[in-house]
Amino acid sequence: MDLHAIAFWSFSALAVISAFGVVFAKNIVYNILSLIAALIAVSGLFFNLGAELLGALQILIYAVAIVVFYVLVISTVPEYKGQSVDPKYMLISIPTGFAIFLELSYVSIYGAWASSTGIFTPEVMQDVGNIKAVSSMLFTKYLFPFEVASLILLVAMIGAILLGRKEQVMEENQ
Amino acid sequence: MSVIEQLVSGLGMPNFVILIPEIIILLTAFTVFILELFTKNRKVISSISILGLVASGGFILVIMLGILKLILTPITLKEASSNPFYSFIINNFLENFVTLYGLYVVDLFSLVFKLFLVVGTIFVFIHLRPYLEAKQTYYAEFYYLILFSLVGMFIMVSSPNLISFYIGLELMSVSLYVLIGLYRKDYKSKEGAYKYLIIGGTGTAIVSYAIALLYGRTGTFDFKEIAQSIITLESVDVGLIGGLVLLLVGLALKASAVPFHHWAPDAYQGATTPITAFLAVPAKIATYAIILRIVVEAFPSLTETWGFAWALFAAASMILGNLVALRQRNVKRMLAYSSIAHTGYIVAALAAPTGMGFAALAFYSIVYLFMGAGAFLLLASLEKNKGWNNTLDDFKGLAKREPIIALLMLIFMFSLLGIPPTVGFIGKLGVFLALIGYEVWWLAVVLVITSIVSAGYYLKVVANMYMYEPSNNSKINVSLVEKLSLGVLAILVLILGIYPTQIWTLTTTISSLLMAGVGR
């Protein structure tokens, strides 16, 4: 058993165990803690596959930024509001979620996926690395979507400020 | 030379000339954005927004007419290139019309849709300021958020690529979520915005998953390359089906087709009425345009399957939208369901994947602009009056209180219903003939029957206006500008109903160009 296989199985086991913790732990803080563990384990899987950029982004965005948001929400929302109110929805949601999971895994396993084409062959990737490859595409061919994404963020920010601020009564004498 | 150096050195300067309309609109948006900090003069802000739109729309119109002239009349290239205007068009719009490294295409199809999107937005802007002031819910943010949303629609209609389509969809939707929620101290508006945010967010997630599957299957984002990669395939496999189904669901959700329509009535009712018009007309038209472009460019070998899926959505939307609209007491909510039904009428044309069907789709979605925007904006004008709640009872005796407005409402209602001298009839006739021509009898029958059912609620409004005595005789204030703009819309509805040849030629041209792959 080589080191890659050992890393794969241990990270996978960690991810699955932590995922159970996310779903079944009673205390909401334990849920979040298990979530962090699961996300870090998944990022370990990415590193193991040689996708170092994806692994780093997984840690930066999910394990740090998103989880910080969750913690903020937990600390501001009263605890009784975080408790599940209507377990009867579980009767629908759990089978539906499971069906979607089955469908996704079926599609992922049995789909005829295209092999990688284009200029970034495995040899080139060995040479330049993930980060350089992704950024060279992002800042050349895909520059336009990248720039428009900044506009979307601007709109979202304006919207958050507008909808979140306290409504003051307007003076109507113009 | 390394691979990255090759990649970078292979890139030239993108052609920015064809992006002038988008650039004008963005500049207008940012001008309003900054100006709003310094001036409280609302007329200045709204006139600058309208001016920007007129400039952009005028540019598009001139270019469009030039292209049409070059395509439809036999001018030799030598003759044309001696004329500076024609050589400008040939250089920019007939030869280098794919820009930003293959992620943006400005062909005749996108130009036509952009022109009508701009026209619809201008009408929304004309009615926006009086409404907001009457309702004491003025935010200058309305103006630039609408403009940002319009840029998103522009990106959508001229995307040759799944990535630019997705980013345009996202820009449009995110602006719309905010716009719906901007009704001061109104709970329903926040509720509608929240519902749209959750369901629309799910929709964009579904679309992004569909894009991931399609990319995984074909190895490319580009519509044309997707088409080639599918044609070379012998059998359709599960990855492709998964991607297609998810893409269909996501697009149906954005077009508010039944059974993915649940956000629409609440969002339409909760939003300020000019925004409802914006949501119901330009946003929908952009969605129909991209649905058409995706089927023609990305899945030409699967038009039958795609058309059948949309036929199911269309039948469900027509039946459910019209039946539920019958039971509404609130006219705004009724029109929201009517807009769902119109989604059904319009996408029904996809069941006949022929040039006729695509032309009918483009035609109906363009003319829906005039009647849909007219009906919603008329409600906006009436709603400014105190005590007007848009209920059917409010319309009782409107003909005696305000005969002109009642007449305009009559025209819009007849057009939405599809009665001959109006353009709604021509739109439905086009879809019907396309369906008959492709022998999709069942859908044509559903279309006719549901149209007859829809008379039940459109005519109820008309009957309430003309056959009852007014319950109160308080004066209804509708300003002259609003009457004029509604009048223009109503006259367009009538003129195009009597003389639809121009627009019909236009849509036939763009659908045949799109199918031939010219302009790509």
Summarize the entry for a quick read:
The complex is a heterodimer of chains A (174) and B (520). Chain A has helices at residues 3-24, 28-48, 52-76, 90-110, 122-128, 130-138, 143-164.
Write the layout of secondary structure elements.
The complex is a heterodimer of chains A (174) and B (520).
Chain A: H1 3-24, H2 28-48, H3 52-76, H4 90-110, H5 122-128, H6 130-138, H7 143-164
Chain B: H1 3-9, H2 20-38, H3 42-72, H4 77-82, H5 84-95, E1 98-99, E2 104-105, H6 108-134, H7 141-157, H8 162-181, H9 187-218, H10 223-231, H11 238-254, H12 263-270, H13 273-280, H14 282-298, H15 303-326, H16 331-348, H17 355-383, H18 398-401, H19 403-417, H20 423-437, H21 441-466, H22 480-498, H23 501-516
Helix pairs in contact in B: 2-3, 2-7, 3-5, 3-6, 6-7, 6-13, 6-14, 6-17, 7-8, 7-14, 8-9, 9-11, 9-12, 12-13, 12-16, 13-14, 13-17, 14-17, 15-16, 15-21, 16-17, 16-21, 17-19, 17-20, 17-22, 17-23, 19-21, 19-22, 20-21, 20-22
Textual characterization of the structure:
The complex is a heterodimer of chains A (174) and B (520). Chain A is mostly helical. Chain A folds into two domains: 1-81, Up-down Bundle (Four Helix Bundle (Hemerythrin (Met), subunit A)); 117-165, no CATH class. Helices cover 73% and strands 0% of the residues of chain A. Chain A has seven helices and no strands. By secondary structure, chain B is an all-alpha fold. Chain B has one domain (97-516). Chain B has 23 helices and two strands. In chain B, strands 1-2 form a two-stranded antiparallel ribbon. In chain B, β1 (98-99) and β2 (104-105) form a beta hairpin. In chain B, α6 packs antiparallel against α7 (141-157) and α8 runs antiparallel to α9 (187-218). Chain B is globular, with a radius of gyration of 23 Å. The model of chain B has no long low-confidence stretch (mean pLDDT 89). The interface between A and B is large, with 41 and 53 residues.
